[in-house]
Design a protein that fits this description.
29% of the residues lie in helices and 26% in strands. It is of the alpha+beta class. It has 2 domains: 238 residues, Zn peptidases (Aminopeptidase); 111 residues, Alpha-Beta Plaits (2-Layer Sandwich). β1 and β2 form a beta hairpin. α1 packs across α3, α3 packs across α10 and α8 packs across α10. It is elongated, with a radius of gyration of 23 Å.
């Protein structure tokens, strides 16, 4: 089994799929899964597909979801070497896709006691509004009936519960130009931002306990630009990108109001990318069964993932994947093959434990 899983991951990594260029990989995965005896035809939405593996089981309705795209980074050719798979997306998250496809090809779907669906989708690595999982959830007739969705983001085979929300805000300080020899004739937009930047520097993460898990809310400047027209000109414009990450005990509307109040009247604020948080679903019976199947640890997800999209629709969702979290978005990305095999075994045990026996 391990050799087949290794080669499957290598096959996925050999098909380049940087964000916005997922079509070739989507075509390849669709063609491969079309050879499996599915419960119904594959449904395609743009460069995303929904794969109904089993139906009519009377057991739990479960979806496994993974994104096809990778970040744009520098990697050599896909290869297996030293117990690792090297290639763009090896960890984030083609290791998860390999697990999903392996399950489809190895399960006896006619006798399987759960209604299992696979979701492969595009454009996760970009802005919230461009992610194709949103339109897929809107359009697909069955996904809204799922009891639990598992997003196979890289987590080192740990169960990451819930997720942080995220807001990116463009904060623009405005002043008035002048010659730097006579700065009193102008109004320096960069120094106008000094108090605001000092306040952000002094802020400490705020801890929230949600269902027994600790999440840390933080606010950070990630970009600064338009700081001046020339070396001898007082700048009249200074633009910051402020990223606010908030715990799942706060709504998107509350987080947006906080960002606006933080800036106040000192600058213009444009909220450019708003992603809600998701609660942990720690007590859900299917989640407890996944814990019992042998996950390495249970931790809060201190980042945003697409569990939030499922959660917003009233669907319990968690993060669990065999990729290495520290390898995500890295130049020269790779992941442990042993970790991928272990992840497959955990999910296989979990599904066997929750599936309803068929007569």
């Amino acid at each position: 089994m391990s050799e087949g899983l290794d080669e499957l991951l290598l096959w996925l990594c050999a098909v380049a799929s940087p964000i916005g260029e997922e079509r070739a990989l989507c075509d390849a995965v669709q063609a491969r899964l079309a050879r499996v005896a599915l419960a119904a035809p594959i449904r395609r939405y743009g460069d995303s597909i929904v794969v109904p593996l089993s139906r009519g089981s009377g057991g739990p309705r479960i979806a496994l979801a993974g994104h096809l795209d990778t970040v744009r980074t520098e990697n050599g050719p896909a290869r297996l070497e030293g117990g690792r798979c090297h290639g763009a997306g090896a960890s984030d998250m083609k290791s998860g896709l390999a697990l999903m496809i392996a399950l489809a090809e190895r399960l006896d779907l006619r006798a399987f006691g759960a209604d299992l669906t696979l979701v492969f989708y595009a454009r996760e690595e970009g802005p919230y509004a461009e992610n194709e999982l949103g339109p897929v959830l809107e359009a697909d007739p069955e996904l809204g009936q799922v009891e639990l969705a598992v997003c196979l983001e890289p987590s080192d085979n740990k169960l990451h519960l819930g997720c942080m929300g995220s807001i990116h805000a463009t904060v623009t300080f405005e002043g008035r130009t002048a010659h730097s020899a006579r700065p009193w004739e102008g109004d320096n937009a960069v120094t106008r931002a000094a108090d605001f930047l000092a306040e952000l520097r002094a802020m400490r993460p705020v801890e929230s306990v949600v269902e027994g898990l600790v999440y840390r809310t933080s606010t950070t400047v990630t970009q600064a630009r338009d700081g001046g027209r020339g070396r001898n000109v007082v700048p009249d414009r200074f633009v910051l990108n402020v990223n606010h990450r908030f715990a799942p005990d706060r709504s998107l509307e509350e987080a947006a109001a906080f960002v606006r109040s933080l800036v106040g009247e000192r600058a213009r604020v444009e909220l450019t990318d708003l992603s809600p948080a998701a609660r942990p679903s720690a007590t859900h019976p299917l989640v407890r069964a996944l814990v019992a199947a042998g996950v390495r640890a249970v931790e809060p997800k201190q980042a945003w993932t697409d569990v939030a999209r499922f959660s917003a629709r009233g669907i319990a969702a968690v993060n669990f994947g065999p990729g290495e979290n520290a390898q995500a978005h890295q130049k020269g990305e790779s992941t442990s093959l042993a970790l991928v095999r272990e992840g497959y075994a955990i999910v296989d045990r979990w599904l066997a434990s929750v599936a309803r026996p068929r007569l």
